[in-house]
Write a structure and sequence with these properties.
With 229 residues, this protein is α+β, with helices and mostly antiparallel strands. It has 2 domains: 42 residues, no CATH class; 166 residues, Alpha-Beta Complex (Sulfite Oxidase, Chain A, domain 2). Helix content is 21%, strand content 25%. The strands form 2 sheets. Strands 2-1-10-5-6 form a 5-stranded mixed beta sheet. Strands 3, 4, 7, 8 and 9 form a 5-stranded antiparallel beta sheet that branches. Strand 1 and strand 2 form a beta hairpin. The structure holds the ligand Nc1nc2c(c(=O)[nH]1)N[C@H]1C(S)=C(S)[C@@H](COP(=O)(O)O)O[C@H]1N2 and molybdenum atom.
């Protein structure tokens, strides 16, 4: 690990040493290795492969497929086809506030056909449309001391990514899938697509985004925090 860390230092002379978050949990030490290795071997913003229209496959919906049964808030938003849905962005931003779907769709959009790679061994190719998360964070006035972007969801998931992934050009807040509105089963009205990490980092049903300086460990969910591909 220290070898990789110094390799990282060599390859990234002008960047600060990549430091993964500190965990209390020793089982998560493997995160540090993948994090440091990825950041060392892939400096800059390499892109995930994008596919052609004809490569689009069917995609199963997994995990939560409709939070209405567990969240009254979600159930009532759904009744109104999400017309009242708003996305709060808070924490280390100089202009905290809430974005409606209309607000998010006013930003430049990006469409990409990518392969979803689930930790359980299946893959699927789909087309995603949304606003690059970095554009929204810039507009909210992300602060100098920001380090993590946390996603809170209607089904109780909380997960976070670092700023390198948050500002990756293919990391988008997706509101469209295969040319239609994002279906409920796939995370309506908005999910994030983190194309440089394994499937479960592409959090569905986003309720709130908080930008923090500190890393919040959401506890041991059985999977690593960092899973670069
Ligand atoms: N909020 C939320 N996000 C989630 C999940 C979930 O259960 N709830 N499952 C994750 C997992 S393990 C995968 S593989 C993908 C599945 O996305 P899909 O249902 O669109 O195929 O969503 C991820 N994001
Ligand atoms: Mo998954």
């Amino acid at each position: 690990m220290s070898g990789l860390a110094s390799l990282g230092g060599l390859l990234l002379p002008r960047c600060s040493q990549p430091t993964p978050p500190n965990y209390g949990n020793i089982l998560r030490m493997a995160d540090n290795l993948t994090y440091v290795a990825q950041r060392a071997l892939l400096p800059g913003q390499s892109l995930a492969r994008e596919y052609a229209f004809r490569d689009i496959s069917s995609m199963p919906a997994t995990g939560t497929t409709n939070p209405a049964s567990i969240s009254e808030d979600y159930a009532s938003l759904l009744k109104n086809s999400f017309a009242d849905w708003k996305l709060p962005i808070e924490g280390r931003v100089s202009m905290p506030g809430s974005y409606s779907m209309g607000d998010l769709q006013k930003f430049p959009s990006r469409t990409q056909i990518t392969k979803h790679i689930c930790e359980e061994g299946w893959t699927a190719i789909a087309q995603w449309t949304g606003v690059p998360l970095g554009i929204v964070l810039q507009s909210a006035g992300i602060m100098q001391n920001a380090r993590f972007v946390n996603f809170h969801t209607y089904d109780g998931w909380v997960d976070s990514i670092d700023l390198l992934d948050a500002f990756h050009p293919q990391t988008i807040l997706a509101y469209g899938m295969n040319g239609k509105n994002l279906p409920i089963a796939h995370g309506a009205p908005i999910r994030v697509r983190v194309e440089k990490q394994i499937g479960y980092k592409s959090v569905k049903y986003i309720q709130k985004i908080s930008v923090t300086e500190e890393f919040f460990d959401q506890g041991d969910i059985g999977w690593a925090w960092y899973n670069g591909i």
